[in-house]
């Protein structure tokens, strides 16, 4: 058996040894759901960046730019942070440069890992299968909300712990707690998640449809991985 | 309605505004369970200290000294970190100076709060009643294990959220998550908690009896509060 651990906030990441491990970064609402949706429907590559200005500058190099802060699109960017924007036909074969409040920072902070994989409910089973093809420990890094532990990313962590039960055992208490929580809520994730702090925050911004989309499991059978600074399809 | 929030680790405490609020510090295995047990059975006052040497020095001022690091008693101290040691008859009317790996640090980091209250399963209902006599927001600060989120402190947080449901609403996702977890596990806390990382760590140190004692609810009807650097009975 290999181990699985769960880091509930990027602010706790120093507690985890990532070297030699696969890190699954998750930001259900909505960064990693967007990345999965885009790459599954034809986007060629996505470059995650923590800095807004650097991200914006990549427009000159032919990237479409996506920028979100506090749930809203940043001025001067081509796209905000809705998975539907990432699935637009004109993005097929194109590259996207993206910066978000929490998700891109979580990727940045996970860079000592052996591999960074992008997880969402949308590609949950695909991520689990991808991990099981390898013989490595796993740490799920939840993007959280400005460091604060959130419901939807924690639930995803629990879901992945469940899917990997045959190959990976919980390394400490957090994966055990989250798999329990996921198991009691999994039949109606939408009801539970739409009451989360972040969903309520986003609802004010009229993105209810996004939330409903992001809690669907296994819509896509793809796995984005970070290679040379870009997220691309694994394999 | 007032609000209740839950800080899962002292390393996340900067995310919480404590000013004007009641902080309930919890370290089920075993610091706050010891404090509650001692004060409930006759210890006059307990002085929590983050530093081992300062704590040890208080022996000269007539304190009994209790020191624990990594689950074991520190050499040169009168007591370790078992609730049974705190209930010894010779401690009646005496003062105890205590330092532990996590619990005393959590108290130290909560000092901007309006009031610091010591919580454990042993005095759960008493703490809830004490809070409901006041009109203040509450933050539960989990001592965790060297910063890592743990099961037993998180479950206590969920238990207090449940007990305060009529007066305090969850401020963000964490209290909502933990109350769910507590509600599915509350009928057999011992089974769940004895599989926790920390319980397994302590079991090696032969303190199984302590764990069984510490997960009992409402053994004592007292509330320790911090006043002038000492924990004493409220009221």
TrEMBL record, chains A, B:
Keywords: Hydrolase, Magnesium
Catalytic class of the enzyme: hydrolase
Keyword hit for Ion transport: no
Gene3D superfamilies listed in its UniProt record: ComB-like
Pfam families in alphabetical order: 2-ph_phosp
InterPro entries xref list: ComB-like (IPR005238), ComB-like_sf (IPR036702)
The protein's required cofactors: Mg(2+)
Reactions accelerated catalytically: (2R)-O-phospho-3-sulfolactate + H2O = (2R)-3-sulfolactate + phosphate
Record EC number: 3.1.3.71
HAMAP family tied to this protein: ComB (MF_00490)
Family under the similarity heading: Belongs to the ComB family.
Protein name: Probable 2-phosphosulfolactate phosphatase
Species this protein is from: Imperialibacter roseus
Gene name, Swiss-Prot/TrEMBL: comB
């Amino acid at each position: 058996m290999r181990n699985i651990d769960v880091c509930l906030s990027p602010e706790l990441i120093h507690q985890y040894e990532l070297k030699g491990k696969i890190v699954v970064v998750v930001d259900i609402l909505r960064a990693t759901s967007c990345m999965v949706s885009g790459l599954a429907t034809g986007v060629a590559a996505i470059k995650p960046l923590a800095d807004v200005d650097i991200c914006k500058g990549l427009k000159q190099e032919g990237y479409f730019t996506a920028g979100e802060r506090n749930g809203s699109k940043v001025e001067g960017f081509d796209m905000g942070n809705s998975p539907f924007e990432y699935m637009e036909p004109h993005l097929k074969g194109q590259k996207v440069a993206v910066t978000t409040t929490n998700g891109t920072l979580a990727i940045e902070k996970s860079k000592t890992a052996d591999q960074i994989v992008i997880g969402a409910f949308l590609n949950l089973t695909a991520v689990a299968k991808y991990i099981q093809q390898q013989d490595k420990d796993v740490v799920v890094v939840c993007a959280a909300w400005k460091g604060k532990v959130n419901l939807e990313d924690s639930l995803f962590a629990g879901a992945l712990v469940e899917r990997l039960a045959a190959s990976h055992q919980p390394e400490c208490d957090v994966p055990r707690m989250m798999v329990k929580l996921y198991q009691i809520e999994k039949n109606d994730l939408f009801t539970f998640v739409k009451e989360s702090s972040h969903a309520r925050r986003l609802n004010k911004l009229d993105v209810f449809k996004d939330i409903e989309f992001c809690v669907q499991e296994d819509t896509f059978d793809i796995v984005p991985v970070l290679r040379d600074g870009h997220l691309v399809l694994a394999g």
